[in-house]
Amino acid sequence: MRSRGEPDLFKVGFTSRRATQRRAELNRVAGDDMVIVATVALPWARRCEARVLKSIRATWFRKRDHRGTEWFRLKHTEDIDAIYACIQREARRTLIEAKLKLSWPRGGQIDSFRTGARP
Question: What are phi and psi of 82, to 5 degrees?
Fold first, then answer.
């Protein structure tokens, strides 16, 4: 999700609920207008989230926002597409890890949806 009011502010996180429900909750609590930029659904979603957050936090000069551990600011040299690419990369790595551990469910897949929303 990305803030419409602060275009450099974004949130990455796991939810077991619908993304629209989570967005409504964040808008109500934070008093912001969050936009869903993309969703990715897959088995092992929590592991994928951990990988994405680790990757984002490891980026040099990454600014975290005061709102919590899943809120970040874009660097001046990147855009939201770079974050989406990171999520896609970590989802594929999670799939490989799960398959190597023989834990990926039969018929399991990575479902991605990009809204194209731009604040």
Answer: -65, -35
Give the relative orientation of helices 80-100 and 45-57 as an angle to the nearest 10 degrees: 130
Residue 91's pLDDT is what?
A: 97
| 66 CB-near residues (< 8 Å, 6+ apart) | none
Smallest Cα–Cα separation from 3: which of 36, 38, 39, 34? 34
Tens digits of residue pLDDT in 60-70: 667 777 777 88
pTM: 0.86
Domain ranges of the chain: 2-114
Helix (H) or strand (E) holding 82: helix 80-100
Which among 107, 91, 117, 111 is positioned nearest to 10, based on CA atoms?
117
